[in-house]
Amino acid sequence: MKLTVVGCSGSFPSAESACSSYLVEADGFRLLLDMGNGALGELQRHIGLYDLDAIFLSHLHADHCIDMCGYFVARYYRHDGGRCDAIPVYAPEGAEQRLTTAYADTPSPSSMSEVFDFRTLTTDSFELGPFTLRTAKVCHPVEAYGIRVEHEGRSLAYSGDTGVCDALHDLADGVDLFLCEASFTHGKEDIPELHLNGREAGAHAARAGAGRLVLTHIPPWTDGERNLADARAVYTGPAELARAGAVYEV
Ligand SMILES: [Zn+2]
Ligand SMILES: [Zn+2]
């Protein structure tokens, strides 16, 4: 499968990148993991506006879902006069209402569901297109999920936003590529059950035996290189920082 980093900035966009959004493709099926601020524009560098087959929203913080409002416009008010079919949107409970409120004036309270088929996330395993997906609740102030994507014996895991948690270890166990958040700086920010620092991300990757670690969701005010060095201090496999536009063959 192919992983494209559409956006990887943590909490708010940077000059170099939109917020969280990752495109996973296999056998012509396109699954988007998160659609944070600026992601919809960047996505169109990689695929057509209507080429997505499904969307996963890890949680309902704006930096992971707010461009769904713009995507609603694109799907609901199609320029050719048509309306797009509803594509599956896997998201925590309350996503439809949250996005409808953010949009502010949808034609009706159920307009979002005409173009998005909202499916409530739980800790679960299921098939979607060519993928086997596993989702698990992670540790964040709002209901949040990480996800493991498997295809033909290859696997990747995406942490979403999380503090240290066992669920993340299970999702990442033995994956070929671990896309893990590292928002905080080791020794500087120490707020439990919110985000990981580079060292904690590296420790998760080491404990899970991940084949490759890609650190993401690093806010513009955080020194990514320091977080990468902290991760490398505890994880000996290949590790790097996510960059907008980066493509990985998993
Ligand atoms: Zn976030
Ligand atoms: Zn968050």
Summary tags:
single chain, 250 residues, alpha/beta, Metallo-beta-lactamase, Chain A, 7-stranded mixed β-sheet, 8 helices, 24% helix, binds zinc ion
Q: Care to describe what's here?
A:
By secondary structure, the chain is α/β, with parallel strands linked by helices. The protein has one domain: Metallo-beta-lactamase, Chain A (4-Layer Sandwich). It contains eight helices and 14 strands. α6 crosses α7 and α7 runs parallel beside α8. It is globular, with a radius of gyration of 17 Å. The model has no long low-confidence stretch (mean pLDDT 97). It binds zinc ion (ZN) (2 copies). The site of one zinc ion has 7 residues, from α2. InterPro entries: Metallo-B-lactamas, RibonucZ/Hydroxyglut_hydro. This is MBL fold metallo-hydrolase. GO terms for molecular function: 3'-tRNA processing endoribonuclease activity. It holds the Pfam family Lactamase_B_2.
